[in-house]
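For the sake of clarity, the format in which proteins appear in this thesis is described at this point. The fold follows as a row of integers, each naming the local backbone shape at the matching residue. One such record is shown here in full, so that the layout can be seen directly:
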Amino acid sequence: MPYKFPQRRLLSSSRDSIPVNSSVDSPFESSAPIDAGNSMRKPISLWPGMYHSPVTNALWEARSSIFERLSNNNVPADAPSPNELIAKPPSKSRTSIVYKFSNDYILREQYRNPWNEIRMGKLLEDLDALAGTISFKHCSRDDSTTRPLLLVTASVDKIVLKKPIRVDTDLTITGAVTWVGRSSLEIQMEVTQSAIETSDASDSLALTANFTFVARDYKTGKSAPVNQISPETERERLLWKEAEERNQMRKKKRGEKKQGIENGEEVKRLNELLAEGRIFCDMPALADRDSILIRDTCLQNSLVCQPQQRNIHGRIFGGFLMRRAFELAFATAYTFAGTAPCFVEVDHVDFLKPVDVGNFLRFKSCVLYTELENPDQPLINVEVVAHVTRPELRSSEVSNKFYFTYTVRPDAIKNGLKIRNVVPATEEEARRVIERMDAEKM
């Protein structure tokens, strides 16, 4: 498909990376990147088991070995948390993973979707696992007399696909800590895949993402300070500045959120969105056949969270939630469009509530709106809301909101496929649409 993606420099060269080693003896000191198809398969204490991808298994195995080392050194449960912070350069946390799709048939089969393309949900799961390992490396200490920190995913900034990702060509994920606050840190991730027709390194950049993790004291659960960062190169200083600006923007958005639609222009937008929906509800025979109500695009599924879906801290793995949300969003876009959709991006994600083993989790999705200005590349915007439901307490809370954007293949458009306009039927739906449209512009 004819994506026109902007070019940018890569996060790091391969020789600058400090890759993960899945060895239990020395998890972070290997000279070669981890082979995604070669992770050790033996169960060890604190390791969540074999449910997840081989990459996630290998990364958690490496982190678990550090916890085991601390446990073997008999660190008491009431040991103090780290109080002597140090500054680390980004190179100390930089980590790479290589997927040898070109010659590993078993690995390729694990990541192949029905259209012989990459299974994007599993890749999102791996990105979260790698970001967690990178944050762990930045915050870890060689001093075995202190408790390790509890690190959890707080948010994910926009994940953008720069070009289609193949499942028959080797793939590399590289990431490093680029910014640190008092108790939070941002990890920039880049997925690269060499293009056969060009040797230009910038053409290999396939996907970018920024993850924010927060540190909690392992015993008290309160926020805990983390090691600071000391950028060494001009590129690292630029990345720190960009991350600082994103952090300030997040704070500004939180301060401005839910101020309401008050001015006349916004009320006009609200009424315009509701106009077609009112015709659907009041005079359905006269409704536009090229439009559809939001509520008629909805899908949902539910599950009870199992122990195999937990991370090493005992909570449900954030990457698992992203994968399940992506797969439901994909199915929603698929049934709406009538053809297999193509992933474009994930918008900002906030992890609002933790999800525990045994929780009843419900995912609800809908096509929130479509963008049809460019007939050659219509965009389908899908919302997925995850609810943590506790039947015993008769309670339900929103854990996450995900916003995915898809398009369709050019050949489907050439063959006469037409994407419908999606309209809200209630004021609450119209407000959600306006909020997302405004967020996309920022």
About this structure: The two ends are 26 Å apart (CA to CA).
